[in-house]
Amino acid sequence: MFFKKLSTIERIYNIGLELEHLDEIFEKITKFLIEFEEDIIKTYASSVLNEITVENIMTKDVLTVPEDMNLEKFEKHIREHKHLGYPVVDENDNILGIVTFNDLKKIGKELFKKFKVKDVMTPESKLVTVSPKTSAADVQKIMWKNDIGRILVVDDKNNLLGIVTKSDLLRASVILLNEMPKITECKHITNFYFYDRDASKINKLADDMVVLLGARGYIVSEKEGYIEILTRDWEPLAKIMKSKNKIEHITITTKTLNLIDEKIAKEVINLIEKYAFEEIIITDHITLINERSSIIRVITDITSFRDSKKTFGTVTIRIDF
Q1: How far are the Cα atoms of 2, 115, 194, 278, 306 from residue 309, in angstroms, in the given order?
Q2: What span, in angstroms and rounded, lies between the C-alpha atoms of 88 and 69?
Q3: CA–CA separation, 278 vs 276, rounded Å?
Q4: Cβ distance 32 to 315 under 8 Å?
Q5: Which intervals hold domain CBS (predicted)?
Q6: DSSP-H helix ranges across the chain
Q7: What is the number of alpha carbons within 13 Å of residue 21 lying toward its C-beta?
Q8: pLDDT tens digit sequence for 82-125
Q9: CATH 1.10.10.10 matches 54-177
C-alpha cells in the first residue's frame, strides 16, 4: 500500500518545573513524547483509513429481511444470525429501508406478533448510504455525525452492494495499528548556553569536558572556532563552540531519544551540574524518522535557574505524515 503525507499534528507543552537535577528535564521530554504518541496513533489510523475504500472492508453477502416479517420472527432472525441490523428489501431486492435491534426495542415484546418490520424500520427516504469508493475515514465521520452503527453500500442505481459497520472499521483500524511504522532513525542534538557572573566557569567546564572525554577514549580534535569530540567510529558526539576565543556553548549529539540513556552524555550533564551555573539555556532538537518516512520533531527551548531551582520554557512536538 502506498502511503502519502496527509496531515500534520502538533502539540506544545509549557514547562514550569522545580527540579533538582538537569537530567530530570530530559526524562520529562521523553514523557511528553510518550503522551503525544496517543495522538500519533489516532491520526495515523485516520490517515491510513483515507487510503481504504469501503469495498475493501464491507460485507458483500448481505442478509436481508422482508418488510412484512413480524417482529417475533425478526427477533429469532437476530438470535440466529448474530447481526444487529438488516436491510429491508421487496421481492425484487429493491431497498426499502433498514431495521435494527434498537428498532425492535421500541415495541413491547407482547406486541411482536402484531407489528411488522415495516412498522419500525428506518425508511429508504431517510437512509444514509455510501458508494463502494467512499473512503473508510469518510464512513467513520458519517457514522459519528449521524450516530449510526451501520451504513448500506449502493451503486449509482441504488442497488445494494454491501453493508459496512463500526466493527468493520474497528477491525481495519486494529490491523493498521498493528502495522504502525517503526522508528528507523533518531538524531538528537542538545545545545547548552551558560550564564554566570564568574566568566571563568565555562572555560574550566570546557577543559574538564575535554579531559573527561579524552580519558574515556573519545577523539578530541581542536579546530578553528570549535573543539570537536568524536567516537572511535568517527561519529560526532560533542562540540565546544568558540567565539572570539571564548567558549560560546556546548553541543551534544546522540542517537537516543532520551539524552541521558547515553551513558557518556549523562556524565557530561553531571559535570555541567558540578559548576552550578546561575542560568542554563537548553535548546534540544530530536528528529525521528520512521520506515514510511513520516517525521517527528521534538523541539525544546527552556531556561533553568540555579537559585530558584526552576525551569521554564516549551516543548513542541510535531509529526508530518
Answers
A1: 50, 74, 15, 10, 5
A2: 10
A3: 6
A4: yes
A5: 58-115, 121-182
A6: 23-49, 71-81, 101-104, 117-120, 136-146, 166-177, 200-215, 263-274
A7: 12
A8: 888 999 998 888 899 999 998 888 888 888 889 999 999 999 99
A9: no
Q: What is the DSSP letter of 152?
A: E
Tens digits of per-residue pLDDT, 153-178?
A: 999 888 899 999 988 887 877 666 66
* CA proximity to 59, closest of 128, 150, 138: 150
User: Which amino acid, one-letter code, is at 320?
Assistant: D
Judge whether 116 and 71 are in contact, CB under 8 Å. Answer: yes
For the record, the C-alpha cell of 270 comes out as 553531571
Give the pTM: 0.61
DSSP class of residue 321? -
Residue ranges, comma separated, of all CATH 3.10.580.10 domains in the chain are: 54-177
* Residue located via cell numbers 552550578: 276
Q: Which residue type does 294 have? A: S
Residues 127/104, Cβ–Cβ less than 8 Å: no
CA distance 102 to 83: 12
At residue 133, the pLDDT reads 93
Nearest Cα residue to 175 out of 57, 21, 277: 57
